[in-house]
Amino acid sequence: PCRSFHGYNRLLTSQIISHYDSINQYKTELPEYFNFASDVLDEWSQLEKDGRKPANPAFWWVNEEGEEVKWSFEELGFLSRKAANVLSEACGLQRGDRVMAVLPRVPEWWLLNVACMRAGVVLIPGTSQLTAKDILYRLQASKAKCIITSDTLAPAVESVVPDCQFLKSKLIVGKGSRDGWLNLQELL
Questions:
Q1: Does residue 73 sit within a domain?
Q2: What are residue 149's DSSP bridge partners?
Q3: Is residue 43 part of a domain?
């Protein structure tokens, strides 16, 4: 059994090496700057518009109650451009700035991921299980200029804001409003 296993392993290695060599022989021009949102998602959107690619959802979310959110590539591109404008204009973020997102699994989570890519903003993901102490540590260590969270988690953030010297804006995802917070839904 050992010999056949080792022999098989060598066969895999040679196959992998030949595949690697074939990839290396393919010469492609790499862009100087690559942005997934504009170079991939927008391109797929254009291919669908031109009829060169069948229309498929770019994003499809379903919650426990069966509510659905479905975005085409065109819709995701449009919404992510609007969200990127919110980040750069309303939140005052610039390319290279850091934003921390502490959200449950809601559609805005993915929308903000694409918006950050589009705007050149560094996204620091955080689970909704973080405590105020965890949030404080991450905000201080990352020097994040913005935090995005839900109305449920906003009180934990508010309790640590005085100790976060770099934090300039707070963005809330939800239907409610809070003093000192920008509301993503309203800004979109």
A1: yes
A2: 102, 172
A3: yes
Is there a domain that residue 20 lies in? no
119-161 pLDDT per residue, tens = 999 999 999 999 999 999 999 999 999 999 999 999 999 999 9
Number of domains in the chain: 1
8-46, pLDDT tens digit by residue?
444 455 555 555 565 566 666 767 888 999 988 999 999
Give the domain range for residue 126: 36-183
Q: Per the confidence metrics, is the pTM higher than 0.85?
A: no
Contacts of 79 (CB under 8 A, 6+ apart): 71, 111, 188
- Average pLDDT of the chain, as a whole number: 87
Question: Which CATH number belongs to the domain containing residue 160 in this structure?
Answer: 3.40.50.980
**Which is nearest to 139 in space by CA: 105, 171, 163?**
163
End-to-end CA distance of the chain: 63
Q: Report the C-alpha gap between 180 and 68 in whole angstroms.
A: 31
- Residue 128 burial class via C-beta count within 10 angstroms: exposed 0-12, middle 13-18, buried 19 and up: middle
Handedness of CA 81, 86, 89, 93 (dihedral sign): negative
DSSP 8-state secondary structure symbol assigned to residue 84:
H
Q: How far apart are CA 90 and CA 157, in angstroms?
A: 19
